[in-house]
Design brief:
It contains 4 helices and 5 strands. By secondary structure, the chain is an alpha+beta fold. Strand 4 and strand 5 form a beta hairpin.
């Protein structure tokens, strides 16, 4: 028997839509983080629930979107143990230029991953 139920759309599709909307705001925050010498490595946490890392910069409830975004840094990720200090160099080798790409830590029910999304 064939399954006729519609395929559930990946939550990453709605994330891509929201990121296009958030593009300028995220880029501005990334530049502020770097210019103010807070960190050379801004990381943005994209999530649909509650997280206790970073600072909320885009709230899905206020903006009527699907995803919220928090701003953080590589240093906070190491401090919190999300990135092991021993893996710092490996992370930096894969980190893309922050002026051209937003570094996202995308949290979904199945887990979390780093994604680099180009600014539009």
């Amino acid at each position: 028997m064939e399954d006729k139920s519609p395929k559930k759309e990946s939550p990453l599709k709605s994330l891509e839509t929201d990121l296009k909307l958030y593009n300028d705001s995220i880029r501005e925050v990334a530049i502020d983080i770097m210019v103010e010498a807070i960190s050379a490595y801004p990381i943005f946490i994209a999530h649909q629930h509650e997280v206790s890392i970073g600072e909320c910069i885009l709230d899905k409830n206020e903006l009527n979107t699907n995803w919220s975004v928090h701003a953080s840094t590589l240093e906070e990720f190491i401090e919190r143990g999300i990135i092991q200090a021993s893996k710092r160099e490996l992370f930096l080798k894969n980190y893309k230029k922050a002026h051209d790409f937003m570094c996202l830590f995308v949290i979904v029910p199945e887990g979390a991953n780093f994604v680099f999304f180009p600014y539009q």
